[in-house]
Write a structure and sequence with these properties.
heterodimer; A: alpha+beta; five-stranded mixed β-sheet; globular; B: alpha/beta; Oxidized Rhodanese, domain 1; Rossmann fold; 2 domains; five-stranded parallel β-sheet; 16 helices
């Protein structure tokens, strides 16, 4: 089964997990299933019209899904989805 | 009776091809390889620009490294044209080079004609000792060390990331380190901000960092900016620096920095940390994506934990700051594969490193345009810039 890597800022919304098993055959199906199981992530991942929020990057393995087929991108068993919001923790944090 | 040295030299000169310095200037720009066969101290006192140095005593063993192609057009010179004549004979008759010439009159005539001369700056005896482990590396060597000494690097923050980066860049002999920080040293900083010390609690961070750097390496000039980087000062501070090391703690300034650095064509080595994880990338304007290509808009305040105090494992900014310093040194030397167009992610707890590709966005509001098209008023601007700051603090 494919896995979804959860970034530090989203972990509190998924019970502290770093990785979740992915249910679904496309990027959209998998992320929607994450949002269903962990409702707090719905607004973090998706805009009200169901699109991926622009401040969240999602990578299929090492490639940005936006240069693939976005939420329609097919995901196979051995793939890893990486969710990556911007981080700015730096010198002072 | 054996012929005299002068007689042998005359015979050799009749067997080789000689070329006037005027023709050498022209041919060097047409791809001829110019080789200086003099001794190292003569080379160090000045040589023909673009020439390679292969002392005559090492000619046989080193010429292939300098000129692998035996059909290449090779022009040899020495001080007056005699040693280069011997060397030309060796290359032609013993080593099978097909197209070798010796420059008549040598470097003396070249200088007399008023042609340009390259005088390499040399490291002092103390510098040769201090940087001896760099000098032993082919990728650094005396030329690379000189590049480091000439380099000007601006560190945004003398905090968790900036401390280790500044220490190692100073130790490496990066000649000018600018440090922007308006903060003073606090006891809670010392768990990770290793450029400061317990005695300097309450001292401004730029002063504290300067003291440590001066004690470590007197070759390094520290330029202090005890201000918070903002739209009002960024275009005064950044120009003149070769590379910026970004360890900024907030999004608005990261976007401001991005826009200004694209406008000025200055590469930014950027890192961010949170908890046990770090991100690192190099944003080199127009060679790769910029920060806005990667993150076109900042996250809302609730997903921007940098806006408040967060836990951080003290060694993590150390690791990430040193990866930044490593990328800086690679950029200065022009060695290796810089982290351009790639985002590296380090997970300290898992002890894993992974990376994703970062593409240039052809619609990027900043780097899809030429630098001169980006106006001052646009730098760091967001539709919701003020709102974001308000929400974050």
């Amino acid at each position: 089964m494919a896995t979804v890597r959860i970034p530090p800022v989203l972990r509190p919304s998924v019970g502290g997990e770093k990785e979740l098993p992915a249910t679904g055959a496309s990027v959209g199906e998998i992320l929607r299933s994450v949002a269903e199981s962990h409702p707090e992530t719905q607004s973090q991942l998706f805009s009200p019209d169901g699109e991926l929020n622009r401040y969240v990057n999602v990578y299929l393995n090492d490639e940005d899904v936006r240069v693939l087929e976005g939420l329609e991108t097919a995901v196979s068993e051995s793939d890893t989805l990486v969710i990556l919001p911007a981080m700015a923790g730096g010198s002072r944090s | 009776m054996s012929p005299s040295g002068a007689e042998v030299l005359r015979q050799i000169k009749s067997r080789i091809d000689e070329v006037d310095p005027a023709a050498v200037r022209e041919q060097a720009s047409n791809g001829a390889v110019v080789i200086d066969v003099r001794e190292p101290e003569e080379w160090a006192a000045g040589h023909i620009p673009g020439a390679k140095h292969v002392p005559k005593s090492y000619l046989e063993s080193r010429i292939e490294g300098a000129v692998p192609d035996r059909d290449a057009h090779v022009i040899l010179y020495c001080a007056s044209g005699n040693r280069s004549a011997w060397a030309a004979r060796t290359l032609t008759e013993d080593l099978g080079y097909e197209n070798v010439e010796s420059m008549t009159g040598g470097f003396t005539l070249w200088k007399d004609r008023g042609y340009e001369v390259d005088v390499p700056r040399t490291l002092s005896a103390e510098q040769r000792e201090r940087y001896s482990r760099h000098l032993l590396l082919d990728e650094v060597g005396p030329e690379g060390q000189q590049k480091l000494l000439d380099a000007k690097v601006l560190l945004l923050g003398a905090g968790g990331l900036g401390s280790p980066a500044a220490l190692y860049l100073a130790a490496a002999g990066v000649g000018t380190l600018g440090i922007v920080d308006d903060d003073a040293v606090d006891l809670s900083n010392l768990q990770r901000q290793v450029i400061h010390s317990s005695e300097r609690i309450g001292v401004s961070k730029v002063d504290s960092a300067e003291q440590t750097i001066n004690a470590l390496n007197p070759d390094v000039k520290v330029k202090k900016y005890a201000v918070r980087l903002g739209p009002e000062n960024i275009m005064e501070i950044l120009p003149g620096y070769d590379i910026v090391v970004d360890g900024l703690d907030n999004f608005p300034t990261r976007y401001l920095l991005n826009d200004a650095s694209v406008r000025l064509g200055i590469p930014v080595v950027s890192a961010a940390i949170l908890g046990f994880e770090g991100q690192l990338s190099v944003f080199k304007p127009y060679d790769g994506p910029c920060y806005r290509c990667l993150f076109p808009v900042p996250p809302p305040a609730e997903l921007a934990p940098s806006c408040g105090a967060n836990g951080v494992l003290g060694v993590l900014p150390g690791t990430m700051g040193l990866l930044q310093a490593t990328e800086v040194i690679k950029l200065i030397l022009g060695e290796g594969d810089p982290l351009i167009g790639r985002l590296l992610m380090y997970d300290a707890l898992a002890a894993t490193v992974s990376e994703v590709k970062v593409r240039r966005d052809p619609q990027c509001p900043i780097c899809s345009r030429r630098p001169e098209e980006i106006a001052d008023e646009e730098l760091g601007v967001f539709p919701d810039y003020e709102a974001f700051c308000a929400g974050a603090h």
